[in-house]
Amino acid sequence: MFFRPKSLDVFKLLLPDMTWEVAGEERNVFLTFDDGPTPGITEWILKELSKYDAKATFFCLGKNAEQYPDLHEKIVAAGHKIGNHSYSHQKGWGVSLERYVEDVDFANQLLRSDLFRPPYGRITKTQARVLSERYHLVMGNIVSEDYSQLVSPRQCLHNVTEHVRPGSIVVFHDSIKAYRNMRYALPRTLEYLKKNGMASAVLEL
User: Fold this and answer.
1) Active-site amino acid positions
2) For 127-148, what is each residue's pLDDT tens digit?
3) Residue 99's CB: how many other CB atoms inside 10 A?
């Protein structure tokens, strides 16, 4: 799902507990990566970010952090921030409150983060209300759509650069499915930010 700026107000009303963008920023944007860590892909992202002295927030799956602990530690050691993306990537719609919250909290035993982003952006109002009592809930106002096979690498880049501005939270993925588009779009996004006086920082809410 791609949230264009003009449609954001509707989603903000439906999910008032969520952070969609960060107000008051004069220079920083916030690049984020979902679904990792993924061997080969996450390391490549870390190298690209390092080239531009850029920082990002990685919304990791607990099961992946558990499987690849060294890679999880590399993200932290490079000065980036970890966010919780649940343990098993469940869609909140159709899942009981107890089961959903248990999955998120179980992931946080590994991730130890104050940030949570719901997989697929699918979360009920009740789930959001309960989780907001102990996490900052983060969505994003720009979704690159890097995961979509219907989106070309150039369109993926355009989805970001057409709308990005200081305070934007940009959603990429460090996953196998997204790699083709993300590999094209990320370095060009970083270059675009640099040329336009912006920089990527970690989310501190």
Assistant:
1) 34, 173
2) 999 999 999 999 999 999 999 9
3) 10
